[in-house]
Amino acid sequence: MSLFAMGFLLVILQPSTGQFPRACANTQSLLRKECCPPWDGDGSPCGELSSRGSCQNILLSQAPLGPQFPFSGVDDREDWPSVFFNRTCKCEGNFMGFNCGECKFGFAGLNCTERRLRMRRNIFQLTTSEKDKFLAYLNLAKNTPSEDYVIATGTYTQMNNGSNPMFRNINVYDLFVWMHYYASRDTLLGGSNVWRDIDFAHEAPGFLPWHRVFLLMWEREIQKITGDENFTIPYWDWRDAEDCVVCTDEYMGGRHPTNPNLLSPASFFFSWQVICTRSEEYNSQQALCNATSEGPILRNPGNNDKSRTPRLPSSAEVEFCLSLTQYESGSMDKMANYSFRNTLEGFADPRTAISNISQSGLHNALHIYMNGSMSQVQGSANDPIFLLHHAFVDSIFERWLRRHRPMLEVYPAANAPIGHNRENYMVPFIPLYRNGEFFKPSRELGYDYEYLQEPALDSFQEFLIPYLEQARQIWAWLVGAAVIGGIVTAVLTGLILACRKKRRGTSSEIQPLLIETEDYNNISYQSNF
């Protein structure tokens, strides 16, 4: 696209919208650009009367972005959420939420002072009743309207800059499908033009923190609609799997007997309808997905393009990925080499860490292998296997954090693709979360993984690995230091013996006490590392 065409498009663009707290989906909030709903506990905005929080101006990151997105002011997701709101609730202490009415992840209790640690477990380690409860919760989420959130059905321009709100209700499960679509969709440039090289949740440093927040919010919503405060998402450990072992009617749905692209009629999910899967249609209409049903879940595991993804990922590939010491590198996108993030996401070869976008490894491999709804980025969360898969991907991220113990500064502060700098707010979450806030161990966020708890020896080994790696990198210096130290010790020993011999030849009347001051000052102890 020419620069002239880009400039022309800037004039005719229609920005797009995000997901909103129901309490802020009204003319008054949009015109005031303020989303500071009252907390039910005291009726004050952000629970200010109870010292839970206060309504404050949003502070946006001014750090420079990477070159991948050459526009400015053409997409409502830029500098999220400033197109819609420039004031939101800033919560104090352990309080959280769009009105400071909830506790931060990992805390509970009336005043959010109680520490909680929940355990995510292997789906095959659940009892039959636990597994059935999980499936029932999924169905409940698919059939329960969200009390707290609505989605936008028109662009900000179509809303006349807030004077004509356009929103609709959505069920809890589809709310998260829509958010995943919204974060990864193309930028609409007017006419039939779009910009595809943009994604606020993938292909850049924020991939892992974004999905970490996504799963935590999903767990929180299930906990709210079920009253089960201990609910966690189970994971599927797909390392070395021969096929899709969760693709049975007992678990996530078997294969249809006559149409291999559909789920079995006996599955919990046979009647589910997908949303947000027709990206080309939305692009041609310069419209957003409005959560209209678009047909059944599609899945045909293993009948994918074998030249791109020949098999499911192996344990060796995961271990190689974990050995990478750099979280991010180079261009910080899908072309990055030796990047842990890019290798785990699947754009770099899991045996060399060299970018190879013609192949799909690790995280991407699972999506391609499913050969259906999960294989298209924007609509992939329609298939509930998405949750099991990303819980396990998050556990690999967690293993890397524990092994390498990175400082927050390891996460890029600047020059990452749009939306992915450390201090950028994640699209489209309200309440607001910064990428860097979730670049830390899961225990600090109130959850852990069952398989990371045992055996104890493995945990000890993972604790030692970063130190052993550092030692390996500087072993030559250590050997050199040892040699120099040995030489210095030998010289000192020789001097001491010579002094003792001299002392024995000196009468007690004239022998000095240790060393005269002027002699002491002339002795030089020096070693060069």
From TrEMBL:
InterPro entries tied to this protein: Di-copper_centre_dom_sf, Tyrosinase/Hemocyanin, Tyrosinase_Cu-bd
Domain of life: Eukaryota
GO MF assignments: identical protein binding; metal ion binding; tyrosinase activity
Tyrosinase copper-binding domain ranges (all copies): 202-219, 383-394
Entry membrane topology: Single-pass type I membrane protein
PROSITE patterns for this protein: TYROSINASE_1, TYROSINASE_2
Protein's cellular compartments: Melanosome membrane
Transmembrane segments: 474-498
Secretion signal, residue range per the UniProt entry: 1-18
Keyword tags: Copper, Glycoprotein, Melanin biosynthesis, Membrane, Metal-binding, Monooxygenase, Oxidoreductase, Signal, Transmembrane, Transmembrane helix
Any one of the GO BP annotations: melanin biosynthetic process
Cofactor(s) the protein requires to work: Cu(2+)
Enzymatic class: oxidoreductase
Gene Ontology cellular-component terms listed: melanosome membrane
EC number(s) recorded for this UniProt protein: 1.14.18.1
Family note: Belongs to the tyrosinase family.
Name assigned to this protein: Tyrosinase
Organism per entry: Grus americana (Whooping crane)
Gene behind the chain: Tyr
